[in-house]
Amino acid sequence: MAGMDHRGHHSVTRWLAGAACLALLVGFGRLALFAAIERDAFVPKPAGVFTPESFGTPSRQIVFASSQRQLHASYVQAADPAAPALMICHGDEENLSDWAIVQALLYHEGISSFVFDYSGYGASDGRPSVSNLRQDGLEAYRRFVADTPLAVRRYVLGYSLGSGVLLDIVGSLSPAPSGVVIGAGFATARSAAVATGIVPSWLAPLLPEPWDNEAQVRKLALPLLLAHSRSDELIPFANAERLAAAAAGPHRLVAYNGLVHNAAIEGDELVRFWAPITAYLHSGQLDPARAGPAGTTDVDSMEPGARR
């Protein structure tokens, strides 16, 4: 009987060792698969020709360090140095040039703005990766705070890809911003990868989850404004509904009809997209009284005077 126990003990030990090796192989396999997909997931856009000056707005073009990389940013200060200020984490296949027209709009709305290009985007050094973008966001916020010493309130906005970058770091931002804005954001990076065709739906569960925005908003105590089009052709509106349902702190979902995914930077749609956001930045109030029973405000049903 003792011999059987001894043999049984060795059998269990071998089984545990084999299971551990299999788990390691699976883990390494997932990481290797993720690394391969990560290389193709980002689509950096080379530097463009537009600056806020192209739209009659003065700006300061900045270079700052993120680890060993040099990142480029554009800062536009409102006429009043004490005006609300907004840092923007932009989307994929975008750069400072794409957001120059937005900075001009915000300037005329009396809001200071800071936009930066991630590693590998625009004229910024390095290559994009989840870890690099996290560090880029943290360093960008430090620079944003340093450039806005008199701002009455500071806000942060993540758009599309930038929603993952921002929500990944928001808990580490110091001093904490006055509020968070998520435009055309996704619930999880895996769901976004499926929606955009980067990976097939059957493969997504096998990948690590680098940006779980749904989990992040559950922990977020800061005021959260979600802005998403019901007609978004890239990131379905259901993502915004998931984020709104998960949000634990004060929040409001602004819904648009008929706007495309890139409405924030599209010349013929950006004024309509930004109207409720600039109103929030100026007031500092989410104004849930305007929201419907599900906490959603339909922009098209708002009174014209309430859009500013």
From TrEMBL:
Domain of life the protein comes from: Bacteria
Gene3D superfamilies cross-referenced by the UniProt entry: alpha/beta hydrolase (3.40.50.1820)
Coiled coil regions in record: none
InterPro entries linked to this entry: AB_hydrolase_fold (IPR029058), Hydrolase_4 (IPR022742)
Domain (Serine aminopeptidase S33) ranges: 84-190
Pfam family, one: Hydrolase_4
Positions of region (Disordered): 288-308
Name of this chain's protein: Serine aminopeptidase S33 domain-containing protein
